[in-house]
Amino acid sequence: MDPAWIGLAGGVIGTVASGLIAVRQARDSQRLARLNGKLQEDLARLEGRLQADLARLGSDLEAERHERAAQFDRGLRAEDVLARYREPLAVAAFDLQSRCYNILRLDFLEKFGTSHERFGTAQKTTLFRFAQYFGWTEILRRDIQFLSFPEADDTRRVAQLQSSITRRLATSQDDEPLMIWSDEQRAIGERMIVQEHDTVICMGYARFCDEFDDRFAPLCTRLLDDLPNPSSAQRLRDVQHQLCELVETLDVRRMRYTEDLERA
Asked: Helix, strand, or coil here: 258?
């Protein structure tokens, strides 16, 4: 074959091959460009989702931090409220459980019956001890009702015991006498609350006696009829036991009441 034709054919083939390679490279470049663009879009979407997730996580963590801080603050406030009223509430609970014990075990009401010269005082002091306990319970309830209780602490236990005492006095099962509904307990407690020197406290025995006929007699008179009733004994005994537990919870270090309280 003529060398000139061979050279021409080789040039044509080389040109065609170069063209095909160029076309293929262009297609590969376009494909790579499309893949790179898609990859960039995917990365942008992924980054957007990650940023959104991180933002939500940060917001959730901040909200949880605020909630935990608020719970801790409410817990401290609840403990502070209990610390403020621990002593007077313990005294009121102790005085009432002591009178319940004397009625159940020492025949207090029979000993100071209608023929005794101190009959009226025995009745008034008994009613005062109920009213005093209801008063301090109401004061504590008002201050602490909107606070959360820390887990497994004295504050929660005190609230549980107070609630148990309220329910035991209020229950109407078996037609037991000495039933004081929770609303009546609160009403008596509300009337016991006074303010002295910008401090909320319970009124003392002297003022209770002075105001008894006008403010307390309508709510308390029925108790005087029910207390001597033998059918009241079980309710009174249950309440006395719960009051003992309340005193022991309030005075857990035995700072005031060093001896174990006797259950009737």
From this structure: coil
Q: For residues 35 and 29, what is the distance between their CA atoms, to the nearest angstrom? A: 10
Letter string b/e over residues 75-90, b meaning 16 or more CB atoms within 10 A of that residue's CB: beebbebbeebbebbb
Tokens of 250: 């309030």
Contact predicate 147/81, CB 8 Å: yes
Roughly how many angstroms between the first and final C-alpha of the chain, as a whole number?
133
**Alpha carbon 102 to its chain's center:** 34
Closest Cα partner for 130 from 15, 262, 250, 239? 239
Each residue's pLDDT tens digit, 14-50 = 676 666 676 677 776 777 777 777 878 777 787 778 7
Q: Is residue 206 within 8 Å of residue 132, measured between CB atoms?
A: no
Domain layout of the chain by residue ranges: 85-250
Q: Which residues are paired to 201 by β-bridges?
A: 194
Distance CA 150, CA 148 (A): 7
For residues 143 and 193, the answer to whether their CB atoms sit within 8 Å is no
Q: What is the pLDDT of residues 153-191, one digit of tens each?
A: 677 888 889 999 999 999 877 678 999 999 999 999 999
